[in-house]
Design a protein that fits this description.
With 371 residues, the chain is an alpha/beta fold. It is 37% helix and 18% strand. The protein folds into two domains: 1-313, Rossmann fold, CATH 3.40.50.11740; 318-362, no CATH class. The strands form four sheets. Strands 2-1-7-8-9 form a five-stranded parallel beta sheet.
């Protein structure tokens, strides 16, 4: 299959691993952050980390949208779902994310009408099919999924659907990266950039990383050969003394992004002055809200929500995991009190969560290494 099998070629992967070993400077330890949770899962699913020399370390970043949702916003979602006459819709990842007093799945078991959808258009179809009920869509994700929400709101306005609204939790990728680079806790040498976000925003927004912080960035695809090639490109920049944004994922990512998607987002969304991230605190200009022009489709204005900030459980170290300060297995509840079946933190729930990746693909290998 074109653009899949060749990017999982074992022989090519070994060749790239050899070139990586030659590219890294002897005696230097290089730490590269893969921003996207999709990269983290590919790295451990395909054993990419086992092909790297010991002095090249990959650390995970905050690029999992489900993982960064704070507990207070989950509580708000549950409150919306319990409003009389509301059909609450969300992606499957969100239904098991714990709030301060249970999850959406538990709210559904208690009688709330909560339905899993695969796109916001599914939620809009439910609203059109049942005009006597209010349908709320839990909008979540980085710039990757924000255009689909924007286009759905545009269609709802165009078709005059009055019983549809969105609970907007979209976030943007640049502010948290800047916050990480400003953090004294983490030393990074370069970044494997998020390919999915870049399909929408392009590679250009990441130019602040080499310009302001002197770190190379390579926007990467998600197959094992993609990731290995991207790591090699980062190492070659470091070896040459260069810092730039390079686009390894050219087969999908235009350097300047998707103009139509960006236009729809600009029309429908506005930046929030502050938005809370799990484990990272409040980050300025990092969240999106529904713009004033579409305020009638904003669930936070249509319904009352608690809007209370809730502290993370003390046992959970999702914040440190999201910042790459610790590995998932270094969390004191990883694999014991916190598992995919009974998660304490969001990183163990999401299909892009770092803890879920380690648990599913790296747990037993890590156990052997510790023993």
């Amino acid at each position: 299959m074109k653009f899949v099998d060749e990017f999982r070629d074992r022989g090519l992967g070994r060749v790239l691993a050899g070139e990586i070993a030659e590219a890294v400077e002897p005696g230097r330890h290089v730490k590269v952050m893969e921003v996207c949770g999709g990269h983290t899962h590919s790295i451990y699913k395909y054993g990419v980390d086992d092909l790297l020399p010991e002095n090249v370390e990959l650390v995970h970043g905050p690029g999992c949208p489900v993982c960064v949702i704070p507990m207070g916003r989950v509580d708000d979602a549950i409150a919306l779902a319990h409003h009389p006459g509301v059909i609450f819709t969300c992606f499957g990842d969100m239904i098991r994310v714990p709030g301060s007093n249970g999850s959406l799945l538990e709210a559904k078991a208690a009688g709330a009408d909560i339905r899993i959808v695969y796109s916001p258009l599914d939620a809009l179809r439910i609203a059109k099919a049942d005009p006597e009920r209010e349908v709320v869509f839990f909008a979540i994700g980085f710039e990757t999924t924000a255009p689909s929400t924007a286009l759905t709101l545009l269609r709802a306005r165009q078709e005059g659907v009055k019983n549809f609204s969105c609970f907007c939790n979209h976030v943007t990728i640049v502010p948290p990266l800047r916050a990480l680079l400003e953090s004294p806790d983490l030393r990074l040498d370069g970044f494997v950039g998020p390919g999915h976000v870049a399909t929408v925003v392009g590679a250009r927004p990441f130019e602040f990383i080499p310009d302001d912080y002197g770190k190379p960035v390579v926007v990467s695809g998600f197959e094992p050969v993609d990731i290995l090639q991207s790591v090699l490109m980062v190492l070659r920049q470091l070896s040459d003394g260069r810092c730039a944004v390079e686009n390894q994922y050219k087969r999908v990512v235009p350097y300047d992004g998707n103009g139509a998607a960006l236009k729809a987002m600009t029309e429908v969304f506005a930046l929030r002055p502050h938005f809370e991230w799990r484990g990272l605190g409040f980050i300025s200009q990092s969240g999106l809200r529904i713009s004033d022009a579409f305020a009638d489709l904003d669930a936070e204005l249509r319904f009352e929500v608690p809007g209370v900030r809730v502290a993370d459980p003390k046992a959970c170290q999702c914040g440190e995991v999201l910042k790459g300060v610790i590995r998932p297995w270094e969390c004191k509840v990883f694999g014991t009190a916190c598992t995919p079946e009974r998660p304490i933190g969001t990183c163990m729930v999401s299909s892009e969560g770092a803890c879920a990746a380690y648990y599913n693909y790296g747990r037993f290998a890590r156990d052997r290494e510790v023993v």
